[in-house]
Every structure is written in C-alpha cells, then in structure tokens.
Write the structure tokens for this entry.
Amino acid sequence: MKNSNFTTRNLVLSAVLLGIGFVLHAITPPLFFGIKPDFMLACMFIAIIINPDLKNTVVTGFVAGIIAAMTTGFPGGQIPSIIDKVSSAIFIYLMIRIFSSIFVDEKGKHIFTALLSLLGTIVSGVIFLGSALLMFGLPAPFSALFVTVVIPTAIANTFVSVIIYKAFSSIKTYA
C-alpha cells in the first residue's frame, strides 16, 4: 500500500509542477520573433529529477509538450514543442541514470539540478529550433535565435530549477 501512495504522491507532484510550468509558459512574453523563454522545462526537469522513472519521464515530457504546444507563440511551434519536450525529458532521464551517483550530498544535488537544467534547456532549444527549421522554417537565423532565446532561457532555467527543486524536494521529504 505504501508503494501506491508513493506513486500517487509522485504523480501529484509532477502534475503540480506541470501546472506551475503551464502558468509560467502562458504568461511569459515572447522575446524574439515570437519565441518565448520556456520555463515549462524547469518544471518538467524537476518532475523527472524528483521521480526518475522512465514511464514518468515519457508521460511528463509528452504532457509538457502538449501544454507547451497549446501556449506557444511560435508559428508552427506545436509539433516541435512536443518533439523537444519528449526528447529533452529522455535526455534528462539518461543523464540522471548515468551521473546521479556522483552527486549524492545535498549540495551536489543542487549542483546536479543546475547542470541538468542548463544542459537540458540547451538540448531542448536545439531540438525545438532544429525540428521547426526542418518542418516549417525559422523566422530568423538559427544562430540568432539560439543566442537570443535559448542561451538566456538556459541561464534563467538554471536558477529557476534550483529554487523549484529546493521547494519540491522538501515537500517530498515531509509529505
């Protein structure tokens, strides 16, 4: 019975995180050529970090992609949003499986969360822009969009992820 409560709690935490990501994604204004910083990623990454299960990862990535697709301001960004969320979710899951044993203390977990968020956001941005370029074209050069949107979003997500991780890891500990 405890196992089902643990699973339910993780699902609820993932849903709450995606809800927060939805609000952040919906209210964030576009920066450059209709592309917004994607704070949904920070919330998705934390949901995966808190519950690093492959099924949770795929479902969380897919749901985050659907939510991002509903709120994107990028012309034709719906399909690239789903592709990039599922792909970056799996990337984060694999990084956790490979490197989590290195970062075992609390400070290490915060550093690992920051690194995962930075790298995951960059991977997500490259996949989003690349898939959008292949399917629909981009409103500006790839490099311009990468520098003006992906890099600043990756830096912001690094800080946002650590803050959210601290809050939700303490909830998970005490719940």
About this structure: The first helix runs from residue 2 to 27. Residues 1-5 have pLDDT under 50 and may be disordered.
